[in-house]
Design the sequence.
């Protein structure tokens, strides 16, 4: 196993040992830490697990995940080529938005996860993950525009779940994925 994966496994155990968000943990089936290639150039970050993710223990395996897979395939990538995670790592009840205190509680672990992965590019999916890493940006203005987060480039995207059933937003997301494809050729 590669060193990054070993460190990520340690971090996953630390979240459990530190008892992060015990109330959220109590009602969730399991911790949903992250999946994919720990050595990947791209790390995608969503919001929090939903029902399917909670059951499977893997981020983005439901409808939004299928859509994300399609977007990746469109640019010639597979899920296994990227690393996928969320800010909040337990499913919030009834798919509500994660609370500010839940995002803050998980932020140090997400930061550590990114320090370990050290990707060339971070893709935030939706405003929540963008906002924890780069507070104050407006998704409507900055989506698909390259930002900087520590030593990684960061591309903010709309959330696939929001774009799935909204034709114009879907088109925007497709165009942003094409921007990502071009960017990957230059970094
Ligand atoms: N939406 C997210 O933000 N994350 C998931 O893992 C699934 C759906």
Sequence:
């Amino acid at each position: 196993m590669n060193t990054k994966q070993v460190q990520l496994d340690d971090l996953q155990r630390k979240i459990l040992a530190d008892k992060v968000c015990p109330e959220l943990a109590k009602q969730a089936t399991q911790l949903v830490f992250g999946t994919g290639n720990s050595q990947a150039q791209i790390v995608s970050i969503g919001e929090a697990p939903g029902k399917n993710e909670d059951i499977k223990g893997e981020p983005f395996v439901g409808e939004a995940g299928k859509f994300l897979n399609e977007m990746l395939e469109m640019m010639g990538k597979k899920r296994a080529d990227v690393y996928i995670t969320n800010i909040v790592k337990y499913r919030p009840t009834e798919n509500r938005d994660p609370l500010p205190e839940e995002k803050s509680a998980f932020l140090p672990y997400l930061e550590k996860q990114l320090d370990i992965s050290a990707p060339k590019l971070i893709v935030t999916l939706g405003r929540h993950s963008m906002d924890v890493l780069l507070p104050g940006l407006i998704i409507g203005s900055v989506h698909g525009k390259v930002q900087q987060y520590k030593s990684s480039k960061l591309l903010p995207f709309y959330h696939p779940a929001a774009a799935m059933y909204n034709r114009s937003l879907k088109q925007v997301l497709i165009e942003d994925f094409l921007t990502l494809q071009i960017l990957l050729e230059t970094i």
Notes: The beta strands are 35-36, 42-46, 83-86, 121-125, 147-149, 152-157. The CA atoms of residues 30 and 54 lie 6 Å apart.
